Amino acid sequence: xxxxxxxxxxxxxxxxxxxxxxxxxxxxxxxxxxxxxxxxxxxxxxxxxxxxxxxxxxxxxxxxxxxxxxxxxxxxxxxxxxxxxxxxxxxxxxxxxxxxxxxxxxxxxxxxxxxxxxxxxxxxxxxxxxxxxxxxxxxxxxxxxxxxxxxxxxxxxxxxxxxxxxxxxxxxxxxxxxxxxxxxxxxxxxxxxxxxxxxxxxxxxxxxxxxxxxxxxxxxxxxxxxxxxxxxxxxxxxxxxxxxxxxxxxxxxxxxxxxxxxxxxxxxxxxxxxxxxxxxxxxxxxxxxxxxxxxxxxxxxxxxxxxxxxxxxxxxxxxxxxxxxxxxxxxxxxxxxxxxxxxxxxxxxxxxxxxxxxxxxxxxxxxxxxxxxxxxxxxxxxxxxxxxxxxxxxxxxxxxxxxxxxxxxxxxxxxxxxxxxxxxxxxxxxxxxxxxxx
Length: 438
Description:
This protein is mainly beta. The protein has a single domain, classed as Maltoporin, Chain A. The protein is 5% helix and 63% strand. It contains two helices and 20 strands. It has a 20-stranded antiparallel β-barrel.
């Protein structure tokens, strides 16, 4: 079902883009590659490790179309994992992000489609192994009506149908209706002020394990954009209303809503960002909120760390990121600290912190080196359990022809847990040969 929906998304976007009026605005970039990857502990067990070499042929695509009436960006990757061992089933995994915007009436009526297909764990408390992965899809589609309110105010009404679906975790499957009313007014050449009222009705397919609810929020938004400084602040209130009582649980919950984001660019080489949020959310809403539009083709398929369930949660998180870009050097670091409190399932209530670091060096026109490291520490309050995951990696890429390249990579995974039998470590060596069309 998930793959069927993915095929419909790609087919619908492709039909729109190949019409006689839009075909010349289409750009397609792709990568074809094959990777031989050796792991010394495929199942991440503390004892009796399974050492195995996996063959992973894959393909990545980035499709972009821009015109006055249609804007499309589809980026994705698919991989076939061949284990060559009867103990493991070969799999085909994929990830995709798609955005399609159609302007039906200029400055008045438009339609949008957003789709996210990702690889997520079945059990977040277990390590990332072949049997602990599932495809998770979230699709949002609907119209936006723009209008003038007078006095310099510009209004918009958005209606969205949202479908969330998991390959294995059925309690995640839901249908949602989102309705939003927005009003925005410029107060200077560099700043704007607005009001937003939003409501979302969530209906889960499995009523035995999930409670349907309505999430509403009302907040004001202020933004300021300068040449080297950006500021955005959302301040208001949000509320959860359940449509079925659960013994021992509240039928409604309210909390202040606060989102802030600051960006500073002192010069062309440095950038600094700070973000803080305190709001109700859930796994499906986070998937769409985190949907990026990066210009780079995805070169690997990574299993996420989302807790795929039906419970909304109150999240508070502070995150910073610093980036440096020079002619040959790049560097980035992103530390964060946060907490999450689930409304229905307190099992996963957690406090967490971590950081990720990446650095790259272009030694020559045809030779690139990169290193990365990350740390994630999670304290599960109701499980009396703490997990800490560390990852280290590096790669060397050599472009021996205009479109052909070879990459040697190394990655180390370390997992430390206060729960007995959950510690593990893994070393992975990979060799990739790839072809790019540009």
